[in-house]
From TrEMBL, chain A:
Catalyses which reaction(s): a quinone + NADH + 5 H(+)(in) = a quinol + NAD(+) + 4 H(+)(out)
Keyword Repressor: no
Protein name: NADH-quinone oxidoreductase subunit J
Enzyme Commission code: 7.1.1.-
Compartment annotation: Cell membrane
Sample GO molecular function, one term: oxidoreductase activity
Top-level taxonomic group: Bacteria
Subunit-level organization: Composed of 13 different subunits. Subunits NuoA, H, J, K, L, M, N constitute the membrane sector of the complex.
Pfam families (UniProt xref): Oxidored_q3 (PF00499)
Upper taxonomic lineage: Bacteria, Pseudomonadati, Pseudomonadota, Gammaproteobacteria, Oceanospirillales
Chief location of this protein within or outside the cell: membrane
Keywords: Cell membrane, Membrane, NAD, Oxidoreductase, Quinone, Transmembrane, Transmembrane helix
Spans annotated as Disordered: 171-205
Reported function: NDH-1 shuttles electrons from NADH, via FMN and iron-sulfur (Fe-S) centers, to quinones in the respiratory chain. Couples the redox reaction to proton translocation (for every two electrons transferred, four hydrogen ions are translocated across the cytoplasmic membrane), and thus conserves the redox energy in a proton gradient.
Automatic annotation (TrEMBL), chain B:
Gene3D superfamilies reported for this sequence: 3.40.50.12280, Cytochrome-c3 Hydrogenase, chain B
Pfam families: Complex1_49kDa
Organism: Halomonas gemina
Segments for region (Disordered): 113-140
Highest taxon of the lineage: Bacteria
Protein name per Swiss-Prot or TrEMBL: NADH-quinone oxidoreductase subunit D domain-containing protein
NADH-quinone oxidoreductase subunit D domain boundaries: 267-355
TrEMBL record, chain C:
Compartment(s) of residence: Cell membrane; Membrane
Keywords recorded for this protein, A-Z: Membrane, NAD, Transmembrane, Transmembrane helix
Origin species: Halomonas gemina
Coiled-coil stretches: none
Transmembrane segments: 6-31, 72-91, 103-122, 134-156, 176-196, 228-247, 253-271, 283-304
InterPro entries: NADH_UbQ_OxRdtase_su1/FPO
Record has Ribonucleoprotein as a keyword: no
The name this protein goes by in its record: NADH-quinone oxidoreductase subunit H
Domain of life: Bacteria
Membrane topology: Multi-pass membrane protein
PANTHER family per record: NADH DEHYDROGENASE SUBUNIT 1, NADH-UBIQUINONE OXIDOREDUCTASE CHAIN 1
Family according to the record: Belongs to the complex I subunit 1 family.
Main location: membrane
Length: 205, 434, 308
């Protein structure tokens, strides 16, 4: 292959950085630090992808992971009972199970890397990876990618809506009531109170 | 060689001054803000000189020591109309406002050239509580609940967030009494979630503010209405300048300060008002928050009351004012936005009253009570009302809370009048310094 | 080969960073003086004297900061500015790094800037800096989508994600005319990512300097330098994406770039002085409810034009 020695050196350094920062994720005592160690690891992988001529995917990795880790850090700080943004906490749980799972997955992946037969047919020199990636994403596989994207977006919005106190008709702690069908009327879609008392628990409409 | 070249260049920098305000210390800041070669900074970490302006009450000396130790070396302390702390008895003290800018610049030059040593540290540099954390990463802690490093309670949330249920760390901190974005002397214990104020307990009331002598005289004998109204407009312009600086409109803050320095019956604020409207001050910054209830508004009095729709102004009881056709201006709203609109309208009104009163040479006639810029002064001086912040601020974001505080004049009125600064005109001052 | 592929690009980027950051200080000082700041020393000298003073001041410490992140954040922000400048083309031949995905690389510089600014405030372990950091995240997550749509808009007529192609596609008509919504939206993004003026939510006056409130001495100098450098990098990108980059009559390409960058810088700094800081909640509402739909319109506009 005709690439300079510097590429090999860069690959080794980046690979070490990716592994070491990935390992540090589990040694730190703060969710914010853990998120950003993970980000460093991903950035190193992104640069390796650029070295592998996957220019778009490598660069996309940077901004996807930057925003994702930022959102993850903030959301973890917001949703956890001890928001370890400032206070330290133990970041690893279920030690035995996770060690076992880690070993199994490592063996599987290493097995794939060592035993699989990778295709060797060289790509044409004039292949533009960005264009072919665009054709792939927005060609035959468009439906899959778009529906996956919509599902993820809906999930995110759903999580925020479920965890927020602010409902469509006011704060949840006040018992949010939908407005009436006429101005000042009874809440729409709610059974009347006397019905509730007289009619027992089950209504069949 | 290289170092001396660097320090010579550093000596020519604008002198970064952090003001720690004591009683009646804020008047000198209005002057320093307009002095070339001096930069008033917001954080002690950004300063080369700590300027203690005005007497600091003994119970705040400990806080002053802590503040003093926060300045990075090399730094010096200068005491303006204030007695140095006992440990710093040898420090420079200046009482003459004319000599202050030059003294600050000389101090900075001496520090940079090495002719003066940095001020000594007053307190031991150690954490307030002993280390009680675990772990090796500087913070310690174990388990889901974290540790108790430095013996402090963990940042766990016992209360629900009061707004949307997305809870960040609730942090309880003590602010003040030298935080430059709060009124001088105000100290508070604040619980924050992210930048949302969860609770606010006022621990130290702001220093009483000194009003110009004419308001004190008005309670003894009739005084020229023009003088009374100009003093009122000056007070409001200085408050406006503080708020404009806070919201990042430095140049308009300077316009307001220059206006207040050279204020006379011919001055007008129409242009300032137009600039404020055009740059979006009322819509982007002073948006309607910090709304006062009628009871709170009455307790604060003055502009805050009239901005909330209460038609309370002692001037309408004065026969001389009635002859000028005085009717109080009121707004509805009662929020930050209404208070600033009210302030600008009242400055304008005061200037018009002053203009007409001077033509007719009118004197106030009522001496049993006077409407001060801070509120009505009848049997009692306007009192401190900073405890209303405890009801007003929870639920506001930090920025909204600070603009609300800046729009309210909450401190009580001091028993002593303002010492008049010598009347050098602004132009001379700026030209001489340049 | 080493000279043209390694030394020259590095020299171009570093020289632009240093001179540009200094010019930001000068222009900002001159605008301040024109708007009535007390006249002190000349605007040419002020950035130098302040820098010299910061070099003589000691770097302070806070109680238990995250040292690595705290000291690295200013340097990383400066490095991001340098990365951004590296993809700005100066002429058809003088391009420090002519990556085929340079527009996307600029997008990731914007995203990583959010992380770095958050870290700068978070790692100091003090209240006001932390508030600045949280606030900035809200702002950063809001402007990044607007920026993406606007940049996709300029990539459409060029049919490329490469800044040199984006400039070349403007030979007939600059994007500022072709996509009238683009530049105003992008300038707002620029004010956001450098947290300057109306969008200075991170280092604002009401936080006593925000994420920089507890920083002194050389680290503060690096931070200030990095903010100015990021403005320069942004103005370079804005000039290439909307003002036709090196294109222009009579003068050589790089000179046109300098002129256009200075114009963008002056506009940004003027807005920074004239408009008050927007309240964080208003700011986020503005971004999501007004500016994001506008950026959709901009994108649809650009798409229609590319189709026609």
């Amino acid at each position: 292959m005709d690439y300079p020695l510097t590429v090999d050196i860069a690959f080794l350094l980046l690979a070490i950085l990716a592994v070491v920062s990935g390992w540090r994720v589990f040694c730190t005592d703060s969710m914010v630090r853990a998120s950003f160690f993970l980000l460093v690891s991903f950035i190193a992988v992104g640069v390796i992808m650029i070295l592998l001529a996957a220019e778009y995917l490598g660069v996309a990795m940077f901004f996807m992971m930057a925003v994702e880790m930022m959102v993850m850090a903030t959301f973890m700080v917001m949703f956890m009972m001890n928001p370890a943004g400032l206070n330290p906490m133990m970041m690893v749980h279920q030690h035995k199970f996770s060690i076992a799972a880690g070993v199994v997955i490592f063996v599987l992946l290493a097995g794939v890397a060592l035993l699989a037969e990778f295709p060797t047919n060289p790509l044409p020199a004039d292949l533009d990876p960005v264009t072919s990636l665009g054709n792939e994403l927005l060609g035959d596989s468009m439906l899959i990618f778009e529906s996956a994207g919509i599902v993820l977006l809906t999930t995110m919005i759903g999580v925020v809506v479920l965890s927020s106190h602010r409902g469509r008709y006011g704060g949840a702690h006040e018992g949010s009531m939908p407005p009436g069908l006429v101005p000042g009327g009874d809440p729409a879609g709610m059974p009347k109170e006397d019905e509730e008392e007289g009619g027992g628990h089950h209504h069949c409409h | 060689m290289a170092v001396s070249w660097l320090s010579r260049l550093a000596a020519r920098a604008r002198v970064p001054v952090f003001p720690a305000l004591g009683m009646h210390g804020d008047t000198i800041l209005h002057r320093l803000a307009l002095t070339p070669g001096i930069e008033l900074v917001d954080s002690p970490r950004h300063a080369s000189i700590l300027l203690v302006a005005g007497g600091v009450p003994p119970d705040l000396h400990e806080a002053l020591r802590r503040l003093h130790d926060q300045l990075p070396a090399p730094f010096a302390t200068l005491w303006y109309r204030s007695a140095p702390l006992s440990e710093l008895a040898g420090d420079l003290r200046v009482d003459d406002p004319e000599a202050l800018p030059e003294a600050l610049k000389r101090l900075h030059r001496e520090l940079m050239s090495g002719r003066r040593d940095s001020s000594p540290r007053l307190l031991p540099d150690e954490p307030p509580n002993p280390w009680e954390g675990l772990g090796d990463d500087g913070h310690g802690g174990e388990g889901m609940m974290g540790g108790v490093p430095y013996g402090r309670p963990m940042a766990m949330n016992m209360h629900d967030d009061i707004r949307d249920g997305l809870t960040l760390d609730s942090l309880t901190v003590t602010l003040g009494p030298f935080l430059p974005v709060l009124p001088p002397g105000l100290g508070a214990k604040v619980t924050l979630q992210g930048d949302l104020v969860q609770s606010w307990v006022t621990q130290l009331a702001p220093y009483p503010i000194a009003l110009e002598n004419v308001f004190h005289e008005a309670l003894q004998r009739p005084v020229p209405i023009a003088e009374l109204e100009l003093a009122r407009a000056r007070h409001h312009l200085q408050r406006l300048a503080f708020s404009l600086r806070l919201s990042g409109l430095e140049h308009l803050a300077l316009v307001a300060l220059r206006l207040s320095r050279g204020l006379n019956v011919e001055s007008r604020v129409g242009r300032l008002h137009r600039w404020l409207t055009r740059c979006g001050f009322f819509r982007l910054t002073a948006a309607g928050r910090g709304r006062l209830e009628a009871g709170q508004a009455r307790r604060v009095g003055g502009i805050a009351a009239r901005a909330a729709g209460l038609e309370e102004d002692l001037r309408s009881r004065d026969a001389a004012y009635r002859r000028l056709g005085f009717t109080p201006i009121v707004q509805r709203g009662g929020d930050t936005n209404a208070r600033w609109r009210q302030t600008l309208a009242e400055i304008d009104h005061s200037l018009q009253l002053a203009c007409r009163a001077e033509q007719e040479d009118l004197y106030s006639e009522m001496t049993e009570a006077v409407e001060t810029p801070r509120g009505p002064w009848d049997d009692y001086r306007p009192e401190d009302a900073s405890d209303i912040l405890e009801d007003l601020l929870p639920g506001l974001e930090w920025d909204e809370a600070l603009t609300t505080i800046a729009s309210l004049d909450l401190a009580g009125v001091s028993e002593w009048p303002l010492e008049p600064l010598s009347e050098t005109s602004l132009k001379d001052d700026e030209e001489r310094q340049a | 080969m080493i000279v043209s592929e390694l030394l020259l690009p590095v020299f171009v980027v570093l020289a632009t960073l240093a001179v540009g950051a200094y010019l930001v200080g000068v222009i900002d000082g001159a605008i301040g003086a024109a708007l009535g700041a007390p006249r002190g020393q000349s605007a040419w000298l002020a950035p130098l004297t302040q820098g010299a003073w910061l070099l003589t001041q000691q770097a302070n410490t806070t109680e238990a900061p995250d040292w690595r992140a705290w000291r690295l954040a200013p340097a990383l922000y400066l490095a991001l500015a340098a990365t951004g400048l590296a993809v700005v083309p100066w002429s058809p031949t003088l391009i420090p790094t002519d990556l085929t995905t340079s527009v996307v690389l600029w997008g990731s510089v914007e995203a990583l800037a959010t992380v770095v600014i958050f870290l700068h405030g978070w790692s100091a372990n003090t209240l006001l800096a932390l508030i600045g950091a949280y606030r900035y995240v809200a702002l950063g997550l809001s402007y990044i989508l607007i920026s993406m749509f606007v940049l996709i808009g300029v990539a459409l007529p060029a049919e490329s994600l490469q800044f040199s192609q984006v400039v070349a596609s403007q030979a007939e008509m600059w994007n500022v005319i072709r996509q009238p919504l683009g530049l105003p939206l992008f300038l707002i993004v620029g004010l956001g990512m450098t947290f300057w003026g109306p969008f200075n939510l991170a280092d604002s006056r009401d936080l006593a300097g925000g994420t920089a409130s507890a920083v002194s001495g050389p680290p503060r100098l690096v931070w200030n330098l990095a903010r100015a450098a990021m403005l320069v990098a942004f103005s370079g990108v804005a000039a290439s994406a909307f003002l036709g980059g090196w294109l222009g009559p009579w003068l050589p390409g790089p000179l046109w770039m300098v002129i256009k960058m200075l114009v963008v810088l002056a506009v940004l700094l003027l807005i920074g002085r004239l408009v008050p800081r927007v309240q964080p909640e208003r700011c986020v509402t503005l971004m999501w409810v007004v500016l994001l739909p506008l950026s959709f319109i901009d994108l649809i506009w650009a798409g229609m034009e590319a189709l026609l």
